[in-house]
Amino acid sequence: MVPFDTIIAGLSGTFTPVVLLYILAGVIIGQFVGAVPGIGPIMAIAIAIPFTFVMDPLVGISFLVGIGKGGLVGGAVPAVLINTPGTPDAAATALDGFPLAKQGKPLKAMRMALYSSVTGDTASDIILITVSAPLAIVALKLGPVEILFLLLFAFTIIVCLVSDTVAKGAIALLLGLFCATIGLDPEYATPRLIFGYVELYDGIPLEAIALGILVMPEVLRRLAAGMGTSRPAIDIPRNQPAEDRRISWAEYWSCRFAMLRGASIGTVLGALPGIGSTAAAFISYASTRESSQDPDSFGKGNIQGIAAAESANSAVVGANLIPLLTLGIPGSVGAALLIGAFKIHGIQPGPLLFTQQAELIYGLFGAMIAANFMNFWVGQAGMRLWSTVVRAPEVVIFAIALLLCIVGVYLGAGGMFGLYTMLVCTVLGLVLSAFGYSVIVFIIAFFLGSRFETTVSQAYSLTGGQIVELLHYPVGLALLGVNVVFLVMFARKHLR
Q1: If residue 184 lies in a helix (H) or strand (E), which one and from where to where?
Q2: CA distances from 442 to 37, 42, 49, 153 (A)
């Protein structure tokens, strides 16, 4: 177990002026980008990662966590006001949030979204803090064979549940793993696919591939669509009614079961790689509606529908870090980007973090709790402001995003070579999107590629390449069995 004095030292490191200031800045930026449809916290995190290179690891990672948490709260603003979710996670929130806003109660809907989001997020963080250390102890007992089958299971879930089709998901996965092989062979240090560029000895720069695949294609598409116009990203009617602004304690308490159900669903699904917060929000919304005594009121402005969706999608944020911190496996794109942030500071996510970097981990836990409180107060103060922010011209917003991408990659990925690499990755991202291949699967596979390759090599050495040797690894065989059962169930459902 982690010594108690280490836990206290980590938590106390969070409550310093510098860390708290960066958490606050991250929450404000996250709510801003969440309130403007088309940007979202994932794009903001990808842009911000290179700028954390000069920061202390706790400061930089806390800043990124603040952006991610703030983005989910901000995404509910346009979903409520004009039925356009700022992030995909808020799509379920719009089902009841927008009808409630049309009834003249936009602030009521936004406050319910804020309160339930903070509630679900805090519940998920508490579970993360309490279960991650014991899970890390268990994970340390897993050898290369068990980790290999665990990675294969994670790949199976991601390919089946994230992609439009299994075939395209598998191709995106293989392409991500292939790109991860560029650079030095981790076993023999043999250069591979570097084509004479010594800059590729360490592989493709993380900043370049994250921004090139995730951010640049969307920025270019939005800039092209907005050329010659000065239209706002969102057009909000100016004469909105202002009655019924508050959520009373009785109304909040009446949604306790919806929020509890949403937090539970979000935590469970968030701990499984590849499912994501959007699915959690819709599942929570559907289950709350089915269990309600008045299901017909859903979709017409029921605050329980808002509570169910927001508590679930926010609970995923903390739960996504459970497989990341304990096993080194990201549960979402946001968690995969955090791997990049860890690696920038020379830290390898996984169970050894709790023995080698325990103070940092508990500092991160403290930052997550602090970010929840800041989310609440910034959201309270900024509701009127964010409803104005979404009127900003999209040409200006995405031009600034383009500039930040260029500066971030230049500083964090080795100058002009990083920019050239980002441009190549941008073309690759555009091609993948045009043909319907999941960039999410590609990114997760790329970030896990080096670990997967190392694990395969170690497992091969342990078994001598003999399949019969797997009989000495019952946990690995159990994980393989779970993988097979999942594939059979998925195939039956797909055929049905």
Answers
A1: strand 183-184
A2: 23, 15, 19, 16
Distance CA 400, CA 404 (A): 6
- Residue 186 Cα to chain centre, angstroms: 28
- The residue with tokens 């790109």 is 179
Torsion from C-alpha of 304, 308, 310, 312, nearest 10 degrees:
170
Nearest CA among 61, 53, 1 for reference residue 337 = 61
CB-based contacts of 350: which residues, under 8 Å, 6+ apart? 139, 325, 326, 327, 328
Q: How far is Cα 433 from Cα 27, in angstroms, rounded to an integer?
A: 29
Stretch (H or E) spanning 482: helix 474-495
The span from the CA of 213 to the CA of 180, in Å, is 14
Please give the mean pLDDT across all residues of the chain: 79
User: Do the beta carbons of residue 247 and residue 303 sit within 8 Å?
Assistant: yes
Q: Which stretches within 163-302 are classed as H helix?
A: 166-180, 206-210, 216-226, 249-254, 256-270, 276-291
Confidence at 466, pLDDT banded by 50, 70, 90? confident
pTM score of the predicted model: 0.69
Enter the DSSP assignment of 383: H
Which stretches of 49-201 are DSSP H helices?
57-82, 94-102, 106-140, 144-162, 166-180
Element (H, E) at 191: strand 191-192
**Predicted confidence (pLDDT) per residue in 354-383, tens digit:** 777 878 888 888 888 888 889 888 888 877
Dist. CA 430–CA 166, nearest whole Å: 20
Q: How far apart are CA 126 and CA 260, in angstroms?
A: 13
Sequence-distant (≥ 6) Cβ neighbours of residue 39 within 8 angstroms: 33, 397, 398, 401
Start-to-end C-alpha separation, the chain? 47
Q: Nearest-CA neighbor of 28 among 385, 316, 366?
A: 385
> Strand pairing partners for 191?
184
288, 95 in Cβ contact below 8 A? Answer: no
Q: 296, exposed or middle or buried, with CB in 10 Å at 0-12, 13-18, 19+?
A: exposed
Instruction: Burial-class residue 190 by CB neighbours within 10 Å (0-12, 13-18, 19+).
Output: exposed
How far apart are alpha carbons 293 and 16 in whole angstroms?
A: 48
Rounded to 5°, the CA angle 262-263-264 comes to 90
